[in-house]
Amino acid sequence: MFVCSACGFLFEDVKTDGELPDECPNCTASPDKFIAYDKKLEAWVKKAVVQHVQFPDEEGADLRAANSALSSHIRFALVGATKK
User: Fold this and answer.
1) Residue 80: is its pLDDT beyond 50?
2) Contact, 11 vs 2, CB < 8 A?
3) Which residues are bridge partners to 11 per DSSP?
4) CA distance 68 to 14
5) Is the whole model's pTM more than 0.70, yes or no?
6) Which one of 37, 56, 57, 59 is CB 3.0 to 4.6 Å from 1, fit for a cystine?
7) What is the DSSP code string of 18-75?
8) pLDDT tens across 25-68, in order?
């Protein structure tokens, strides 16, 4: 499984990076934004969801936008999870 670090879209049926599409079907991000998803990311993604619940986007906002609060929370969580 892979996740788009721009919007958090999960590519659940994708096993290798060779199976990834040319762009995210949710936000049209390029494949360089996709990262392999594993169990260590789960806690970080849950933190992003909690952050989004506490600090949501404005009513009617495009949650797929690169500058949406949801995508920002997901990106920060994934960056934190992948830091070595």
Assistant:
1) yes
2) yes
3) 2
4) 26
5) no
6) 37
7) GG--SS-TTT---GGGEEE--HHHHHHHHHHHHHHHHSPPPTT--TTSTTSHHHHHHH
8) 888 889 988 888 777 777 777 777 776 667 666 776 665 565 66
